[in-house]
Amino acid sequence: MFIAMNRFKIKPGHEEEFLDIWRGRDTHLQEVPGFKRFNLLQGETTEAHTLFASHSLWESRDAFEAWTRSEAFRKAHANAGSRKEIYLGPPQFEGFDVKL
Predict the structure, then answer these.
(1) Which domain holds residue 29?
(2) Which end of the chain is more exposed for a tag (fewer CB within 10 A), N or C?
(3) Phi and psi of 35, rounded to 5°?
(4) Count of CB atoms within 10 A of residue 86's CB?
(5) Are 41 and 8 within 8 A, CB to CB?
(6) Which residues are CB-contacts of 51 (< 8 A; sequence separation ≥ 6)?
(7) How many domains is the chain built from?
(8) Please, is 27 exposed, middle or buried when counting C-beta atoms within 10 Å of its C-beta (0-12, 13-18, 19+)?
(9) Do 3 and 39 contact (CB within 8 A), yes or no?
(10) What are the helix (H) ranges across the chain?
(11) Which phi and psi angles does 40 have, rounded to 5°?
């Protein structure tokens, strides 16, 4: 199993806009071999930002990496960053191999 996460820092007051982007997004993940599950997580809000993380579970690192090279990935990310003014920098990727 492999977990892929992206951490997003969103400007205060733009949380609902960020959530609406994800609600309206067609991720194309259901058609991807090896995909198991997706969650969008909301973390702490400070004066500087609200933390969000996308969390996807995959059968393997190879399945995740194959997705990143696929047409489904290109479709899912076609409009990524279209609302740059709500983000405090690019997303920070973290990948984890499940050991236990």
Answers:
(1) 2-97
(2) C
(3) -75, 135
(4) 15
(5) no
(6) 7, 8, 9, 10, 42, 43, 44, 45
(7) 1
(8) middle
(9) no
(10) 15-23, 61-68, 71-76
(11) -110, 120
Q: Give residue 49's Cα distance to chain centre.
A: 17
For residue range 54-97, list pLDDT tens digits in order.
Answer: 999 999 999 999 999 988 788 777 766 667 789 999 999 999 99
Residue 71 contacts residue 29 (beta carbons within 8 Å): no
Cβ neighbours of residue 80 closer than 8 Å, sequence gap 6 or more: none
Closest to 22 measured CA to CA, from 58, 52, 66:
52
The structure tokens listed for 6 are 């992206």
pLDDT tens per residue across span 19-46: 998 888 777 788 889 999 999 999 999 9
**Which CATH number goes with the domain that contains 29?**
3.30.70.100
Task: Please tell me the predicted confidence (pLDDT) of residue 87.
Answer: 94
- One-letter amino acid for residue 5 of the chain: M
